[in-house]
Design goal:
By secondary structure, the protein is mainly beta. It has no helices and ten strands.
Length: 115
């Protein structure tokens, strides 16, 4: 059974930092490219960053230089380090396979940037 469990979200002030984590199960994690997606209220889910099985990252233009995606294949875990957060980063963050995502999604983790 495919399962994604995201954690680490919270409330942070503009300019602050946060790290979110996702533990995956039921998939061949080591060989799958993984990604972080986010969805803000009233918008479609968008791709934030992805990382190949070998650890090569790609970023959306809106987060490049501020966010860092990484993975630990021994722990079936993918991380997203978010620095210099701004109000537009407020969203629910999800992880899933990259290009295309699997049908199963986790509950996500809420990130709220507010002063």
């Amino acid at each position: 059974q495919v399962q994604f469990v995201e954690s680490g979200g919270g409330l942070v002030q503009p300019g602050g930092s946060l790290r979110v984590s996702c533990v995956a199960s039921g998939i061949p994690f080591r060989v799958y490219p993984m990604a972080w997606y986010r969805q803000a209220p009233g918008t479609q889910r968008e791709l934030v960053a992805d990382i190949s099985g070998g650890g090569y990252p790609n970023y959306a233009a809106s987060v490049k230089g501020r966010f860092t995606i990484s993975r630990d294949n021994a722990k079936n875990t993918v991380y997203l380090q978010m620095n210099n957060l701004n109000l537009e980063d407020t969203a629910v963050y999800y992880c899933n396979r990259a290009g295309p995502p699997l049908r199963s999604w986790g509950w996500g983790t809420q990130v709220t940037v507010s002063s």
